[in-house]
Design goal:
This protein has 592 residues and is an alpha/beta fold. The chain has 20 helices and 12 strands. Helices cover 62% and strands 11% of the residues.
């Protein structure tokens, strides 16, 4: 199984910008009424902005020239009222679009979180958690900016450009040429400047994802970092990674900053053209100074939204890459899906059968981990799986829990193919314990009742007493309602809490994957006692390297060469001359 690391850039799917934008607009379309109201308010704001220069022209050429003080007051008052109206409309518009953007981002983040929950373990095993979080948090947040830009920046600026151009053409078509004649040069320059912008921002997103992956991994393993005195080494690695992030950011931003140069040149050429046309061609003099001032204002207003559109386009190239990464996550097919004909099936006995099962990881389909594996386990029996590291022991139990699907063959429980059993029925009947029992941040009670909120207080306490966990729980500050932290309990105590949680869940099939390999001998005795209690009456699969933990198993499967090469009780396998299990047993015990 190939695994991405923080040192390698993600292999993103090919991004189609048009398709991404179409998909973004499909989300916006769900809020068409709010957006329609926002567009109306934009139009009102644009109309006010277009009217204001005409008021300036009227104040100069009419009121001031005629020395009409009352008329000037009326004109200024009208301008003030229009400015207030613009402020109100713009504020309402911004609030509406902020609500729309937040709602859409909420929907996308909810969908992404739910979709991640439907993906198989392979997706999470093959990439760092930090890279997944980068898409779920950073990239979706960037999408929020994109939603706002599309409606609060692009649409109003387009409306503004069209309105100002129309006003200039109506007022003086010749002077209007000063704005129109420079636009083709600006558009061509903008395209040339930003043609590589998309790839630059995509590279930045990948480097940022590497940074998130390294940071998450470093702080998750901070004990190891400190224990091995590796702070300076991790700091050096961090410097290299943030150096890559900074370099990719600078490359993207340098190209974006060229837009200011392009805009300044275009705006300057427009003003030069305006004055040349005004004085040389039209011969505008003192009497037309108000018109010229108004046109100067129009020209500035004309180029401001064009500049904003150009800058927004630059930002969109950044945010489109983020949207593409989010949609790629949403489009990642779930390799484990509930069948259309899946049925509610109550697992009562817990018998397990493998029929000609073969398995390979999705990214290495030609490299079989298991091949044509068949066995049958009756209810209530305990099966131990042993073998060399990488032989496929954990793969067997992952297939039973349906964390993966076989590439061929079938896995059956109580005679039913598990691919036809609803996930809810299957998972509530199977419990998995590993060498590193995971406890969520929260209280002891919340961890014990995880997924089983309908269990009563006495039933929960009885399970803890039976396992032998209640004593140290009550000694813990807060008891059952005490907070769980990384240092709250020893490894053995965490295993006992996990056992109590499993007992409360009351599964028919129990999977113990190296459940005692990471604890001391004294704790192992307590955990083994608890495991003995919880295993009674259940079908159990025990994966273990410590052969002392499986001596009492009903049957032992030795996994090697992609299949079961030996099977039998401990005594029968130890007594087999030249046997693989005997060799493993002697290596662990006879030399000692």
């Amino acid at each position: 199984m190939a695994v991405e690391t923080f040192r390698t850039d993600e292999r993103n799917a090919t991004t189609d910008k048009k398709r991404i934008l179409a998909r973004v607009f499909s989300y916006l379309a769900r809020h068409r009424r709010a957006i329609a109201l926002s567009i109306v308010l934009m139009t009102v704001c644009s109309a006010i902005v277009i009217i204001l220069p005409r008021l300036v022209e009227h104040a100069i050429d009419v009121d001031v020239m005629a020395k009409d003080a009352e008329g000037l007051v009326r004109t200024v008052s009208a301008g003030f009222l229009l400015c207030m109206a613009w402020w109100i409309c713009n504020t309402v518009r911004m609030r509406i679009m902020a609500g729309v953007a937040n709602s859409i981002v909420h929907t996308i983040r909810r969908d992404a979180f739910a979709h991640l929950g439907s993906l198989s373990l392979f997706y999470f095993d093959s990439r760092p958690t930090g890279k997944i979080l980068s898409r779920l948090i950073n990239d979706i947040t960037s999408m929020k900016d994109m939603m706002s830009q599309l409606v609060t920046s692009i649409l109003p600026n387009l409306i503004m450009i069209a309105g100002i151009l129309a006003a200039m053409l109506v007022s003086n078509p010749v002077l209007a040429l000063s704005a129109v004649m420079v636009v083709p040069l600006f558009v061509a320059s903008t395209y040339l400047v930003t043609i590589r912008g998309f790839s630059n921002w995509e590279a930045f997103r990948k480097k940022q994802s590497n940074l998130n992956a390294f940071s998450h991994e470093n702080y998750s393993g901070i004990r190891i970092v400190q224990a091995f005195n590796a702070e300076s080494e991790t700091e050096k690695t961090f410097e290299e990674i943030i150096g890559d992030v900074e370099s990719s950011w600078n490359r993207a931003v340098r190209r974006s900053d060229l837009m200011n140069v392009v805009w300044s040149v275009a705006n300057g050429l427009g003003l030069v053209s305006l004055y040349l046309l005004g004085y040389s061609v039209l011969g505008i003099g003192r009497d037309g100074i108000g018109e010229l001032v108004a046109f100067s204002s129009y020209l500035t207003l004309f180029w401001m939204p064009i500049r904003q559109l150009a800058m927004t386009y630059n930002q969109l190239t950044n945010n489109i890459t983020a949207a593409g990464r989010v949609f790629e996550l949403l489009d990642t097919p779930a390799s484990l899906v509930e069948a259309d004909d899946a049925v509610d099936f109550a697992i009562r006995e817990g018998s397990v059968e493998f029929s000609s099962v073969s398995f390979a990881y999705p990214d290495e389909p030609d490299k079989l981990i298991l091949e044509d594996l068949s066995f049958c386990v009756r209810k209530g029996r305990t099966i131990a799986l042993v073998g060399e590291t990488g032989a496929g022991k954990t793969t067997v139990v992952n297939l039973i829990a349906r964390f993966y699907d076989p590439v061929s063959g079938s896995v059956m429980i109580d005679g039913m193919d598990i691919s036809r059993i609803r996930f809810s029925n299957l998972r509530e009947s199977i419990a998995v314990m590993t060498q590193d029992p995971f406890l969520f941040t929260g209280t002891v009670r919340e961890n014990l009742l995880y997924g089983r909120q309908d269990v009563g207080e006495e039933e929960m306490r009885a399970a803890c007493r039976l396992i032998g966990a209640e004593k140290f729980i009550l000694e813990h500050p807060g008891g059952y309602d005490g907070r769980v932290t990384s240092s709250s309990f020893s490894q053995g105590q965490r295993q006992l809490l996990a056992l109590a949680r499993t007992l409360i869940a009351d599964p028919r099939i129990l999977i113990l994957d190296e459940a005692t390999s990471a604890i001391d001998t004294e704790s192992e005795i307590l955990v083994q006692k608890g495991m003995g209690l919880i295993m009674q009456g259940r079908t159990c699969f025990v994966v273990a390297h410590r052969l002392s933990t499986i001596r009492n198993a009903d049957e032992i499967f030795v996994i090697q060469d992609r299949t079961i090469v030996e099977r039998g009780s401990h005594d029968s396998l130890v007594g087999r001359e030249g046997g693989i299990y005997r060799a493993l047993y002697e290596a662990q015990f006879l030399e000692v």
